[in-house]
Amino acid sequence: TFRRPLGVVGMITAGNFPIAVPSWKLIPAVLAGNTVVWKPSDDSPTLSYLFVKLFEEAGLPPGVINVVFGGGKDSTGQWLVELMDEGLLNKFAFTGSTKVGRWIGEVAGRNLIRPTLELGGKNPLVVMRDADLDLAVEGAWWSAFATGGQRCTSAGNIIVDAPIYEEFKRRFLEKTEATVVGNPLLHPEVTYGPFLNERLFQRWQEHYAWGEEDGATLLFGKGRITRENPYPHFLGDPEAGLYGWPTVWEARPGMRQFEEEIFGPTINLVKVDGIEEAIQVANATPYGLSSAIYTNHRHWAYLFKVGIRAGMTSINNTTVGAEAHLPFGGVKASGNGARESGIWVIEEYTYWHAVNEEYSGKLQLAQMDTGYVSPRAPTPWAEVLGF
User: Fold this and answer.
1) Are 270 and 257 in contact (CB under 8 A)?
2) Measured between alpha carbons, how far is 54 from 221 in angstroms, rounded to an integer?
3) Element (H or E) spanning 77, and its range?
4) Are strands 266-272 and 247-250 parallel, antiparallel or unpaired?
5) pLDDT, tens digit (0-9, with 9 covering 90-100), for 244-258
6) What is the pLDDT of residues 204-242, one digit of tens each?
7) What would the DSSP string read from start to end of 71-94?
8) Tell me: the pLDDT tens digits for 86-144?
9) 315-333 tens-digit pLDDT
10) What residues make up the catalytic site (predicted)?
């Protein structure tokens, strides 16, 4: 058996990790013998150009990695996707929203192309009554606000067991209220910086209205950080970018902000009673990318890891960690089952080729030849063992 390259791979990547995510796709695709047409995010064109120049300077032949710049739907991205309909692509890899991923999946499907779709998430983090609260608060805070919640693996709902709910909420709010926001290039102590673009910021702004309409309780947060709406732990000029207050809600399953990905510095606290309800609530969103549980009860940890519908699970760790040697990807609305990272990524950019060669000089009818072996009486165990 042999692995063969698929051919020409189309790629579209998001802008939140403009080097890491493209690397997960470009490097294994090229190592497997494919060529690539890549449209990076229009949030990071210069960085993408410089990244590809490194391949060129390292000696990669011209035409192996080809970069096209532009927008998404109704622009360069749509042109690239529709190359599948013209028979010019043999594979497509995409990281981005579930809505766009569904469309790419439809185009790939009608052309019998197996795409790699890494899509959105609304990742649950469960804190059980026996958890190390200091560790759980630190992990939940980092899962919610690292990189401003602008990761597909950022926590969306923190699901807390009833006996510790009030104490966890107190500690988590205390930690959140001390979060440092600003320009991380000038101030290394900053936890997160601005929004990637205005589109993401506007959607984040809208979620305040969702919460009010659904009856969620706003515990902390006041929208955009400006000179007129200052945040006490902001470093830099708030008018130099689109910055948001770290925002905490109390929410329930069924609310829009409980179910939808927001992609910003916002987190929901959800109260449950026991491990069974925690798993039920953790599974109550359309997504299934990352998940986490904080507990020292091994049976609860086991129940969670077998009951959760997610591509990745951390026990006593955050939702945002992605181990390079493990498969990365989601289920449900978070992906189509494709896996990146680790050895599993090679499956995405190759196909299996089975070869057999006959040396007998006679026609061999696979699964049809009728040569028989005469059975013999079984050999006694004593004889086999030499007794």
Assistant:
1) no
2) 42
3) helix 76-82
4) parallel
5) 999 999 999 999 999
6) 999 999 999 999 999 999 999 999 999 999 999 999 999
7) -STTSHHHHHHHTTTTT--SEEEE
8) 999 999 999 999 999 999 999 999 999 999 999 999 999 999 999 999 999 999 999 99
9) 999 999 778 899 999 999 9
10) 118
Secondary structure of residue 367 in the 3-state scheme: coil
Residue-range domains of the chain with CATH: 2-119+335-352 (3.40.605.10), 123-323 (3.40.309.10)
From 246, 245, 242, 146, select the one nearest 194 (Cα to Cα).
Answer: 242
For residues 56 and 53, what is the distance between their CA atoms, to the nearest angstrom? 5
Please state, rounded to an integer, the average pLDDT across all residues of the chain.
95
Residue 290 structure tokens: 């990352």
Reduced to 3 states (helix: H, G, I; strand: E, B; else coil), residue 374 is coil
Q: Count the helices and strands in the chain (H runs, E runs).
A: 11, 18
Residue position matching structure tokens 């804190």: 127
Cα first-last separation, the chain: 43
- The pLDDT score that the predictor gives to residue 163 is 99
pTM as predicted: 0.91
Percentage, residues of the chain above pLDDT 70: 98
**Quick one: DSSP state of residue 359?**
-
Nearest to 146 by CA among 271, 301, 281, 322: 322
What lies within 8 Å, CB to CB, of 303 at 6+ separation is 275, 276, 279
Map residue 248 onto helix, strand or coil: strand
In the chain, the largest separation of any two C-alpha atoms, in whole Å, equals 93
User: Annotated catalytic, 118?
Assistant: yes
Mean pLDDT of all residues in 53-74: 94
DSSP 8-state code for residue 146 = G
Confidence class of residue 198 from pLDDT cuts 50, 70 and 90? very high
- Locate 27 and state its tokens: 């490097």
- Rounded (to 5) percent helix, strand, coil in the chain: 35, 20, 45
224, two tokens:
């955009």
Position 90 scores a pLDDT of 99
CB contact set of 196 (below 8 Å; sequence gap of 6+): 15, 16, 43, 150
Phi, psi of 42 (to 5 degrees): -75, 0
Burial class of residue 291 (count of CB atoms within 10 Å of its CB; 0-12, 13-18, 19+)? buried
Residue carrying the six token digits 């009010």: 212
Other Cβ atoms within 10 Å of 301 Cβ, number: 19
